[in-house]
Write a structure and sequence with these properties.
15 strands; 7-stranded mixed beta sheet; Rossmann fold; 6-stranded parallel beta sheet; 10 helices; Quinone Oxidoreductase, Chain A, domain 1; alpha/beta; binds NADP nicotinamide-adenine-dinucleotide phosphate
Length: about 325
């Protein structure tokens, strides 16, 4: 099968599409024929071998053999199942998350049947379904499971035009909160169209200058910090970053002190959130933002684009689905 492989850490060009054996499903696995996957910021960091402490997991000098084909999000069709699997069968259309096993940047990937896998939303293409996995479930995990966001609260979403951010704006609104989105000038209209009550262009105004205004600052891109954002929180407010090692220390520190809290977490097991995302998408509550779509052969270009830090929503890799310029206005020729 064709697979995108990187044998050393570095810039996008370290990723090459080459032949690899098709994975053999273990008794609890589902083998998926990949129709679409994505390139996320997390994979860009893994490809670079960052952060430095992450090399303990990624590989000290070069990527560990089992982490050389990245790919976290997948939408496709079940090709075969292991002997112990009854939940899925060949021909089922699914979407899911590979987590620490990665491997979806390929024509086939195996995923545990009891893991982060669900029937694909009927209303979405494979490309859209792949883009509705990590960002949507992570936003749901934080806003609903960790924070119980509800009516009467004011939620600020920093990085509102990114993958987690585009879903966070829609979900916080769905839960009844007043939503303020923060993004750059090019994305103000997009974020407004997702339902934000107010959009702050960070080149014009610094939200951290607001005093006691927010119940939640959901910093999806960790471009701010607790130090800067704490003054903008109401009493009992929470600063919620998705990344950054030091935030774990802040979370411990603020847990034992009065005042605003730092809340951290990792959305890895998506077995309960994926079916909810499917329902919300099918009910028209969640819209999927696909910025660009690239064929697998041009995955290095996709990495180069995501490395800019300017992607809007999600960048899809079409493995089987042909790229359809009529659906994705920004798809490169
Ligand atoms: N904790 C977890 O469970 C978990 C799960 C998934 C991902 N993550 C992490 O979450 C992070 C975000 O992921 P993502 O995929 O949502 O990000 P992303 O889509 O790559 O974010 C891109 C967006 O960031 C915005 N941005 C850039 N600079 C900004 C700034 N100074 N202020 C506000 N927005 C800015 C850009 O908007 P403009 O172009 O408008 O500036 C762009 O739309 C990653 O570090 C990832 O590793 C954590």
């Amino acid at each position: 099968m064709r697979a995108a492989v990187h044998t050393r850490f570095g810039p996008p060009d370290v990723v090459r599409v080459t032949e690899r054996p098709v994975p053999v499903p273990r008794p609890d696995d589902v083998l998926i024929k990949v129709h679409a996957t994505t390139v996320t910021s997390a994979e860009c960091a893994m490809r670079r071998g960052e952060p430095a402490w992450g090399r303990v997991i990624l590989g000290l000098r070069r990527p560990r053999r089992r982490l050389r084909t990245l790919g976290l999000e997948v939408a496709g069709v079940v090709e075969s199942v292991g002997s112990g699997v009854s939940r899925f069968g060949p021909g089922d259309e699914v979407f899911g998350f590979t987590g620490f096993a990665v491997g979806a940047h390929a024509e086939y990937v195996r995923v545990p049947a009891s893991g982060s896998l669900a029937p694909k939303p009927a209303a979405l293409t494979f490309a859209e379904s792949a883009a509705a996995v990590d960002g949507a479930t992570t936003a749901l995990f934080f806003l609903h499971h960790k924070l119980s966001v509800r009516a009467g609260q004011r939620v600020l979403v920093n990085g509102a035009s990114g993958s987690i951010g585009t879903y966070a704006v829609q979900l916080a609104k769905h839960f009844g909160a007043e939503v303020v989105g923060v993004c750059g000038p090019a994305n103000v209209e997009l974020v407004r169209s997702l339902g934000a009550d107010e959009v702050i262009d960070y080149t014009e105004r610094d939200f951290t200058a607001d005093r006691s205004r927010y119940d939640v600052v959901f910093d999806t891109v960790a471009k701010s910090s607790f130090r800067k954002a704490r003054g903008s929180l109401r009493p009992g407010g929470k600063y919620v970053p998705t990344t950054g090692l030091s935030n774990n220390l802040w979370a411990l520190w603020t847990a034992v002190r009065g005042g605003p809290k730092v809340v951290v977490g990792m959305s890895v097991d998506k077995s309960t959130t994926l079916p909810v995302v499917k329902e919300l998408v099918e009910a028209g509550v969640l819209r999927v933002v696909v910025d660009r779509t690239y064929p697998l052969e041009r995955i290095a270009e996709a990495y180069r684009y995501v490395d800019t830090g300017r992607k809007r929503g999600n960048v899809v890799i079409a493995v089987v689905d042909p790229v359809d310029p009529s659906r994705d206005a920004l798809t490169p020729p």
